[in-house]
Amino acid sequence: MKDGLTARQTSLLKTIIDEYIQTADAVGSENLDKKYNLGVSPATIRNEMVALTKAGYLKQAHTSAGRVPTPTAMKFYIDQLMEEKQMSLVDEVKAKEEVWDFRNKIDDLMDEATHALADRTKSLAVGALKNPTSSKGLRGAGDKFWQSGHSYVFNNPEFAEVAACQNLFSIFQEFDKLDRLFFGLESTSPLDVFFGEELGWPELMPSSVVSTHFTIQGRPGAFGVIGPARADYSTVIPILRYFGNLVQEVANGK
């Protein structure tokens, strides 16, 4: 048993989350029975989904009888069930070549790396560095931010309505929140996943933020990837981790 779940419940939860990440739709027991060979009856699937809901891993979707994973389920999935898709050596070398020429210009390095991160994750990416010393980038509360990949947000059904995108993008006008998001939230891990639903921030309510931290010449820095709560974490997390390590290595001359 993991986290109080039986092996069958754990396997079913992984299938539900994989399906949700792929389709963005609430998951129903009938669809699971038809699409996957789970080896149990539809009634058993329904009963286990009810149990997972009571345990706080699933919640009822507003628009259908199906269920979607909660932040608790997504973190369990990321920590224990997911298999990361590592970058290939060719991709790693290419990424390093893209930022290498900017190793002595920190502003340009952060700008280039943020764009490269957005392109590789197909997501909205943010770079952050404390104590800005020049005018490039976004300013606020003694911090500096770069952003790229806004157009990728529109590829997700969660942001099909303009109002949802406006709500998300509005966080870039709230520098105190950005500072708190990347440097102020309690963390014991080199890589964090925060859900808007947990934070209670309207701007990030249907979203998640994956972030990693690094240090450039004594200055705290961070990269973040912002996307739907059902982001493809198996791809995003290793790419984000690599870029954090890469920038720290390149900027510090290691």
List the helices and strands and how they pair.
Blueprint: H1 7-23, H2 29-35, H3 42-54, E1 58-60, E2 67-69, H4 71-81, H5 89-100, H6 106-121, E3 124-130, E4 138-140, E5 143-148, H7 150-153, H8 162-169, H9 175-184, E6 191-195, H10 196-199, E7 207-216, E8 219-228, H11 233-251
Structure description:
- There is one protein chain.
- By secondary structure, the chain is of the alpha+beta class.
- It has 2 domains: 7-81, Arc Repressor Mutant, subunit A; 89-251, Beta-Lactamase (2-Layer Sandwich), CATH 3.30.450.40.
- Helix content is 48%, strand content 19%.
- It is built from 11 helices and 8 strands.
- It has helices spanning 7-23, 29-35, 42-54, 71-81, 89-100, 106-121, 150-153, 162-169, 175-184, 196-199, 233-251; strands at 58-60, 67-69, 124-130, 138-140, 143-148, 191-195, 207-216, 219-228.
- The strands form 2 sheets. Strands 4-5-3-8-7-6 form a 6-stranded antiparallel beta sheet, sandwiched between helices. A two-stranded antiparallel sheet has the order 1-2.
- Strand 1 and strand 2 form a beta hairpin.
- The protein is elongated and about 60 Å long.
- The relative contact order is 0.13.
- Mean pLDDT is 89; it is low at 134-141.
